[in-house]
Amino acid sequence: MPNIKDNMMQAVRLHSVSDLRCDRIPVPVPKGRELLIKVGACGICGSDLPRVYEHGSSNGLYPLTIGHEFAGEVIEAGELADRSLIGVRAAVFPLIPCRSCDPCVTGNYAMCEHYDYLGSRRDGGFAEYCLIPSEWQLVPAHNASMEALAMTEPACVAQHAVRKADVAAGQFVVIFGAGPIGIMAARWAELFGAGVLLVDIAPDKVAFAREKGFLAVNSMEEDVEEAVCRYHHGKLADAAIEGTGAGPALNGCISCVRAKGVVSLLGNPSGDAVLPVGIHSMALRKEIVLHGVWNSSRAPYPVNEWEYTVRMMDEGKFMVTDLITDYLSLEELPGAMEEIHKGARKIVKAMYAARSLHRER
């Protein structure tokens, strides 16, 4: 083991629903093919809030170190692991598939029937150090900062949604939801050669999207269908991405796409998401294609979205760190999450970043 003071570390652990603490615990020791990483950065995901304040851990395991959007540097390896990996900087793929069920053997790891998961089923990235099951979880990087790499997971989800929407160069895409996932989806769509309009009901999110150079409208103040036509030469969108989980946003997607258009369902559903009769009929008449989106693809073909995302970050072609509005220490994290949960703290993206590895602000 490397020289770690007292072999102790800080970790933000969920002890029960609404009981989140920054604890001091022993640094884990890697065994077998396990790798120990020094966490460089870990982002708060929207799913972390219901996990902490409503649902608890996914398998009833407590205390649990939360955090699944993270990156780090390998500092130690188990006896069966490749020690040449020590010193490698990488994004961490948090899903741990069984790799033997039918979805896994076909490369659909996100649909694994017996999966484990860092940050919700076993200890994750809101800690100074974290155990990684094997090198398969790592996506090595060269130039990207730790903060950028910690956003690989949501960036891959956004990319997956754009790919499921069959976005191609020259098309126009409307994206409902102007949070970090929506903005990253917009950046992927632009990278793929499409025009984009972002939609939200929160004035601060619409303003933030405009600050980042995007066309953006508030659907509480403006007719989105008219806005799409205005920005797309009088035509409806070729594709839409529903990134909020709200019924009205799904209705808007169906209204805003052309006949034979594609709608990518990204947001986790909330409330009553049943389609009104008129919208349902419109979906039939237009022969809308609906694609469900679940996480991202780590399969090698047709595109390994994780490797592609890290490569685009390494080459400076896909930017994410400008979306980080709040940097937090591990000690600050429980209080900050409480403020975010209560609506007392407005963020775009909040992140723990280790000072020793923090490269950009």
Short description:
This protein has 361 residues and is of the alpha/beta class.
Any overview of this molecule?
This protein has 361 residues and is an alpha/beta fold. The protein has eleven helices and 18 strands. The strands form four sheets. Strands 3, 5, 6, 9, 10, 17 and 18 form a seven-stranded mixed beta sheet that branches. It has a six-stranded parallel beta sheet with strand order 13-12-11-14-15-16, with helices on both faces. Helix 4 packs across helix 10 (305-314). The model is unreliable at 356-361 (pLDDT under 50).
SSE blueprint and pairings:
Layout: E1 8-16, E2 19-26, E3 35-43, H1 48-55, E4 64-65, E5 69-77, E6 89-92, E7 95-96, H2 102-105, E8 116-117, E9 129-132, E10 138-140, H3 146-149, H4 152-164, E11 172-176, H5 180-191, E12 195-200, H6 203-211, E13 215-218, H7 224-231, E14 237-242, H8 247-256, E15 257-265, H9 277-286, E16 289-292, H10 305-314, E17 324-328, H11 333-342, E18 349-353
Parallel strand pairs: 11-12, 11-14, 12-13, 14-15, 15-16, 17-18
Antiparallel strand pairs: 1-2, 1-4, 3-5, 3-9, 3-18, 5-6, 6-10, 7-8
Helix pairs in contact: 4-5, 4-10
Provide tags for this entry.
single chain; 361 residues; alpha/beta; 7-stranded mixed β-sheet; 6-stranded parallel β-sheet; globular; disordered C terminus
The geometry reads as globular
Summarize the main sheet. Answer: 7 strands, mixed
Proportion of residues in β-strands: 25-35%
Integer-rounded radius of gyration: 21 Å
CA distance, first residue to last residue: 31 Å
Q: Overall mean pLDDT score?
A: 95
